[in-house]
Design the sequence.
């Protein structure tokens, strides 16, 4: 079964509620099989979304498309928050297919959470490697939760690689390479966003993702000690 409800998009709704009583609502719909973000706003994208406008240094799309796919999809949020300061308080409610999450937080952290979906489902060839995580999106994830989800998703992928008779990467070597490339995308995207926003909420949302992503290779190269203790009992093997 490719999805829980075939032919029906996977939907996530983010509601930002502010202290003055105003709300900003964003609905994201993903294709149930490919997890591609289904774009609903077909208005002409703003100039800052052009691919040659502060492109990522490792962008594989240069010379092939006119616009950055992530920027085009994220443009609506950038416009909504381009004059918002990062530390402004908000209550974010996220309605996912299986449950609802609610957190009193700051705009930058709420935006960072929703940006994680945009980054991995917008057909950026580099970010596509993380797309399976969008199906089990965890709003407001901590660095440790992000590490666990990233490693778990990658090892699950290696199981299917093995099932196809290919050589799996149980040592997570390629996962380190993936996140090093992702880090460059986050750096490039933050520069792009900084030139499209008057205040820092949008930019800091990317910086938060960047800091999370940069930590993954470090944790892996140091033996995943941050979560290794959780498995101390299971690593003892079957008790006689």
Sequence:
């Amino acid at each position: 079964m490719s999805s829980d409800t075939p032919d029906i998009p996977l939907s996530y709704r983010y509601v930002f509620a502010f202290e003055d009583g105003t709300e900003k609502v964003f609905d994201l719909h993903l294709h149930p099989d490919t997890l591609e973000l289904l774009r609903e706003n077909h208005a002409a994208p703003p100039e800052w979304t052009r691919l040659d406008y502060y492109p990522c240094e490792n962008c594989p799309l240069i010379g092939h498309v006119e616009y950055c796919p992530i920027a085009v999809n994220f443009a609506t949020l950038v416009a909504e928050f381009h004059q918002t300061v990062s530390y402004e308080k908000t209550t974010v409610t996220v309605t996912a297919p299986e449950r609802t999450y609610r957190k009193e937080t700051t705009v930058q952290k709420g935006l960072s959470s929703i940006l994680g979906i945009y980054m991995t489902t917008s057909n950026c060839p580099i970010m596509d490697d993380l797309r399976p995580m969008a199906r089990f999106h965890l709003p407001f994830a901590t660095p440790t939760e992000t590490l666990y989800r990233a490693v778990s998703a990658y090892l699950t992928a290696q199981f299917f690689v093995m099932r196809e008779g290919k050589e799996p990467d149980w040592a997570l070597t390629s996962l380190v390479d993936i996140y090093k490339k992702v880090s460059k995308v986050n750096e490039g995207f933050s520069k792009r966003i900084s030139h499209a926003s008057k205040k820092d909420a949008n930019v800091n949302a990317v910086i938060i993702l960047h800091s999370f992503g940069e930590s993954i290779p470090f944790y892996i190269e140091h033996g995943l000690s941050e979560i290794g203790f959780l498995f101390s009992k299971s690593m003892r093997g079957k008790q006689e």
In short: DSSP finds seven helices and four strands in the chain. The beta strands are 10-17, 23-30, 89-95, 100-106.
